[in-house]
Amino acid sequence: MLVSFEGQDGAGKTALLVAVHEGLQRLGMPSVVVEEFSCSPYGQRLIEAVARDKFLRPVPGETATFRTRALEVVADLYYQDEREIAPPLEQGSIVLKDRHLDTILYTLTPTLVTAGAVRDESRALTWLSVLCSELRYRPNLTVYVDAPLPVRLEPIQQRQRHLREDRANEVSREDLAVFAARDRIIRQLIHEEPARFLVLDNSSRPLIEGARHIIEAIRSRLAPSRKGQR
């Protein structure tokens, strides 16, 4: 079973992912965590790129364009699909993925349109969806970790990851517009495929309670497939 964790910056999805992984291990349910970017050269280039711009936009002096950056992100997900996700799934583990297909759609679409690289959101969503259409594994369950903007701002301003961007811990009006566009698109994706999503309000819920809720959802979705195997 592939479970993806989605959420805007500062919503707390990574902490929940770790808590779910630990909870599954305690229950004797084998699980594997796959990071946002791979350990391959594809992923390492993206880690460097996000250090230069938190929204993965090409900065002056880079050879990447907005469209080639999108292709780099998609290429890394294909690498993970084959090399990091497929093996543990085939061995019967639950794979917990920090960001997956939906991140590509709701983060890159507004970036491409704002940059003028693609004409409008509909065309951008179609292009990105087609690029990702040959993935071998798509999420069986997508946990969307939701939190209002004031809750998200504090961890954004305090994050300590390796960032060379001068204003990486600041939130400008331009950043707020990006967050709003991303929120509109992810809501559209959830509306189009509600059965796949578990929307979790993480504004004030204790971490252990949220993790327990996700684990219950995983177990309930695993139960019918296990019955079918007997």
Q: How would a crystallographer describe the biggest sheet?
A: 5 strands, parallel
Radius of gyration: 18 Å
How many helices does DSSP assign? Answer: 8
Distance between the termini: 17 Å
**Which series of helices and strands comes N to C?**
EHEHHEHHEHHEH
Report low-confidence residues grouped into runs of 5 or more. none
Mean pLDDT metric: 90
The counted number of beta strands is: 5
Shape: globular
Instruction: State the strand order across the main sheet.
Output: 2-3-1-4-5
Secondary structure category: alpha/beta
Percent of residues in helices comes to 55-70%
| Beta-strand percent range | 5-15%
Descriptive labels:
five-stranded parallel beta sheet; 11% strand; globular; 56% helix; 8 helices; 230 residues
Describe the protein's architecture and organization.
By secondary structure, the protein is of the alpha/beta class. The chain is 56% helix and 11% strand. It has helices at residues 13-26, 41-52, 66-90, 101-114, 121-131, 149-158, 173-192, 207-229, and strands spanning 2-6, 31-34, 94-98, 141-146, 197-201. α1 packs across α8, α3 (66-90) packs antiparallel against α4 (101-114) and α4 crosses α5. The radius of gyration is 18 Å and the shape is globular.
